[in-house]
Fold these 3 entries.
Entry 1:
Amino acid sequence: MVKKSFLQSIWNVIVGDAEKNKQHRISALQAEILQKNYVENQKTAPKITDYPPYIDVARQLFSEKTEIFRAAVFYLRRIAENESKYAEPIFKIMQQYAQTADRPAEDMSFLDEQMRQIEKNIHFAA
């Protein structure tokens, strides 16, 4: 730890650490460059709003644990009921999964039941 002299401490109190403030300042050119970089990154960055909310849940269908699988199916059905624009893609994902999945009969019957609920509650062209 660096010891400060008594006079230096008093000077810093009076002046208000002007040296430290000078270190944290940036020039107008640096600020302009930072601002341009930020704007460019905002244009090229992927927008989170374009990412459907059901994708992460649909990945959980492939879990070997029954509880996770059932929760994923349940939440996919809830998303389809609450967000009608996602109902058709969710139903198609569930159909494709039902055709290719190798799961116990109990899990598959739960999936079929949830798919019937989606068809009953949501009106879309499947």
Entry 2:
Amino acid sequence: MSNKERLENNTKLSGGNKKNLFYKKITSLTKKAHEVSTLCDVQLKIVIFSPDKVILWPTESQAKERFENYLSFLRTKGFPI
């Protein structure tokens, strides 16, 4: 099945099915992020804006800490923030 066919099939889904598909994709994405983070020894953060809430991975406090680390890295390199 091509990407275009998959996209067309996804547009035909009902509201509940779209939500289930959305959360399945988030689960898959966070699993992949965990694998990359572990295998490559890097800190990753995922921020997803859904219609009803903001989803942060791995946790809210860890995501904030990683964002602050990123901002401090930019400051040390001389990027304007």
Entry 3:
Amino acid sequence: MRVAFIQKDPLPHPLLMSLGAAVVFRGHQARVFIPAAERDLKRAIGRYAPAAVVFAPPSGFHQWALNQARVLKQSTGGAPMLFTGAHATDHRDFAREHGCDVVMTGDPETTLPEVLAKIHKERALPGTSGTVAWGSDGPIIGPPRAMVDDLDQLPLPDIEIYRRYPFIQQQTTLGFAVGRGVLENTHAGFQIGLEELARRFQPARKHSVEEAIARILLLRQRRPFYRRVAFRDDSLLLDRVHWLPQFLERYGREVSLPFSCLARADHLDTETVERLAEAGCKLVKLCIESGDPGLREGVVGSPVSDNDILDSVDRLRTHNIGVQTLSFIGLPNETFETALRTLDLNIRIAPDHAFALGVCQDEGQATSQEIEQLRDLLPVTVRFPSLRPMTTWAARQGPSTLHRRIFQWHHDASFVTSGELAMRDIARIATSMKRSRGEALSSP
């Protein structure tokens, strides 16, 4: 049977590659389709004729994914539209949305093969273990499925699901997740859900040191052109006593490629920073959450002061490690004044790039327009601090497509300046993707 994965980003997605490997291991076929890289998505999907279509949209792109699903339902002759990932799992009532047939919760690597088996036998999908569907009388929740305790038992992520897109397969940066932490999403429109935010940097299941190193080496052997590794989930630095020292020692000795990772200030003690530098770390994406100490403590769960953050930045720069910041704009109880404190803290840090991520509010709540506008203007203002008075004024003038374009341009440029993607990788993406970046198809 054939499975089609639909994604928006022009970067390999660790979860989809793991899912692809899980179904290919069981004799199925899997392929990714990126709408903005297709001349005619409906025709391409129709020719592929998948038995199921899978989406794993991050918060902020869930409506985009639903719009795609509504149109592709017809192109596939009624194939089930399956949703997974953090947003769908955190919002199980997502299953009631028009366009979503089933939400897969927990570890979809074990759920999706069972769903495919039921499709093959023409059996009903609602009620399958590890799924949520919506019936006329409300939610149909399947029995909980046991989590995969030993991630080492899962197949190697399958980059071949991107065979339609050489500009992805030939990227020189290897995106890798050492565990099941919260994934970094590098698309400019990315948001983060409140439940996902609460999990950020919490203990997560990880590969063993031996398996993580073996997988990176095997992936590099298959694609010798890799020149950099980007650790995409936030679990790398969580065990700094046992797991991390062993991993970094072996990584520096056996892999020896420059890398980037996610971290929080209270993870970056002197010894950890020294180990990162020795292993080849060239960039840390530092989560500062908010410039307001009260909001930050509510997110982190422990007091991390401005001085803690600034000291960690000094330690990184002392060891020639670049710094990008990740800030969340639109947290619960956020005001325009607290959002300005986030802007000001970023200006004090002076990072190589300041990512500003929106927070996807619960139903019935919304972030004010002036805060959303400030988020769009934050990165360029951090780059050019003299713009701050103008930014404060412009954010209060109402929505502007120019603000969004500036945000997108500055975001794209950050990949070049940070070295996260080689210039030729950026050029391939630019020539292969439409300017729309995969805007939703129009529903009939």
